[in-house]
């Protein structure tokens, strides 16, 4: 119901909100909505969620936002060929590699988990 009522559109808009807790919360909601739901994943990707999330991963000044953004990225690209294509085209694999160097353990752990999953699902990425 959330997606059919336009909830994804609102959540994607909130990814760029000036208040960091709202950006982090929107990322978590987006991830929860998209996780293992191909229609929700496709809709979120079509709305431009992935570029916004990668922007947050690469350079959000609040330390709580990148791990939440990475959770949403994981939910958009695992078992979703369209999501993986967008991730590669947007330089997302490099951003994940950069996250492995983060001083924040939660971000490093999520990045390592997503890279592990992608390498197992898509051997060509090795």
TrEMBL record:
SUPFAM superfamilies: ARM repeat. InterPro entries: ARM-like, ARM-type_fold, Hsp70_NEF-Inhibitors. It comes from the Eukaryota. One of its GO terms (molecular function) is adenyl-nucleotide exchange factor activity. GO terms for cellular component: endoplasmic reticulum. PANTHER family: HSP70-BINDING PROTEIN 1, PROTEIN FOLDING REGULATOR. This is HPBP1 protein. It comes from Sterrhoptilus dennistouni.
């Amino acid at each position: 119901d959330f997606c059919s009522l336009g909830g994804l559109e609102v959540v994607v808009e909130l990814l760029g909100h000036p208040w960091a807790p709202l950006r982090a919360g929107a990322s978590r909601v987006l991830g929860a909505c998209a996780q293992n739901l191909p229609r929700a994943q496709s809709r979120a990707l079509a709305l431009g969620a992935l570029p916004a999330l990668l922007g947050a991963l690469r350079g959000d000044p609040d330390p709580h936002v990148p791990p939440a953004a990475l959770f949403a990225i994981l939910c958009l690209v695992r078992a979703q060929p369209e999501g993986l294509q967008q991730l590669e085209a947007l330089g997302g694999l490099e951003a994940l590699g950069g996250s492995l160097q983060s001083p924040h353990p939660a971000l490093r752990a999520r990045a390592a988990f997503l890279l592990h999953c992608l390498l197992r699902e898509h051997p060509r990425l090795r």
